[in-house]
Amino acid sequence: MQRWTNHVAAVQQVDVLLFDDFSAHCLANTVEPMRAANTLAGQALYRWRFVSLDGGTVVSSSGMEVTAHARLADCGGDLLAIMPSYHFLRHDTVETHRALRAATTRYGGLAGFDTGPWLMASAGLLDQRQATIHWDEIARLEERFPEVEVLRARYVRDDDRITCTGALAAFDLMLELIGDTHGQALRLEVATLFMSAESAGAAPEAMLARHRVVARAIGVMQANLETPLTIPEIAGRIGRPRKDLETRMKADLGATPATVYRRLRLIQARKLLLESDISVSEVAMRTGYDNPSALTRAFKSEFATTPRALRGSQR
């Protein structure tokens, strides 16, 4: 089991309120980061349910059917994610308003995904709050609900109300929530798990870091896992002073560049151990360690297990 989580935090219950024509992409980007966090932590950090107003089956915009686990009225938890997506005005009803207002007494927070913020605003849940919505609907939201301060942002967190623009932003938001609750190291590992080589080279800042300088530094680190650079070399390659890089990385990821670099190398080592049959010696070489013993010491310090024990537990 790895040690990068806050074990004091209780298991978070997240319910997703689905309406017909919801976005399956948005749903996956909401749930999969939680599933990955559980897997990587080796324990249940999150539980989730799919709910609907009547407890029945809902159908996505692509025709995927999801049978709700329960009615919204019978549920409560830490966060309710509201996900109508397409044709959302069909769901802008008195029944929906009542259900959402009642949910505020049973959930620690409410989050509107995609066009979900419209239903929240219509129910009076965003009055005098900052919020965003899918960018196709920003102008209409501003006009219809002048009491809401509408921002053009990927997502907005205003106390116990969260609003999010769409599927890609949903993934970023879930990463941030994971980082806030369980630490930036786990957030970094979850983000890295979902990155392909193409996405890593194209826009690492979209997943790994909020600040562009930090994202560029991480990009350099990822490109040099086998033959690690010094931190001054990394700072030089991105054209920033070392102290500036250290300050920004601590603020963004809660750790020094050296610590983040080591974690990236160990994340890659863990991936190779779980997804390939190459020897531990080869894994050590590919992640910048002089020998298997050096890798084992670093690996055990971070994950509280050895490379051989981890691989053995998967067989």
Automatic annotation (TrEMBL):
<dbReference type="Pfam" id="PF12833">
    <property type="entry name" value="HTH_18"/>
</dbReference>
<dbReference type="InterPro" id="IPR018060">
    <property type="entry name" value="HTH_AraC"/>
</dbReference>
<dbReference type="InterPro" id="IPR029062">
    <property type="entry name" value="Class_I_gatase-like"/>
</dbReference>
<dbReference type="GO" id="GO:0003700">
    <property type="term" value="F:DNA-binding transcription factor activity"/>
</dbReference>
<feature type="domain" description="HTH araC/xylS-type">
    <location>
        <begin position="215"/>
        <end position="313"/>
    </location>
</feature>
<keyword id="KW-0238">DNA-binding</keyword>
<dbReference type="Pfam" id="PF01965">
    <property type="entry name" value="DJ-1_PfpI"/>
</dbReference>
<dbReference type="InterPro" id="IPR052158">
    <property type="entry name" value="INH-QAR"/>
</dbReference>
<dbReference type="InterPro" id="IPR002818">
    <property type="entry name" value="DJ-1/PfpI"/>
</dbReference>
<keyword id="KW-0805">Transcription regulation</keyword>
<keyword id="KW-0804">Transcription</keyword>
<protein>
    <submittedName>
        <fullName>HTH-type transcriptional regulator CdhR</fullName>
    </submittedName>
</protein>
<dbReference type="InterPro" id="IPR009057">
    <property type="entry name" value="Homeodomain-like_sf"/>
</dbReference>
<dbReference type="InterPro" id="IPR018062">
    <property type="entry name" value="HTH_AraC-typ_CS"/>
</dbReference>
<dbReference type="GO" id="GO:0043565">
    <property type="term" value="F:sequence-specific DNA binding"/>
</dbReference>
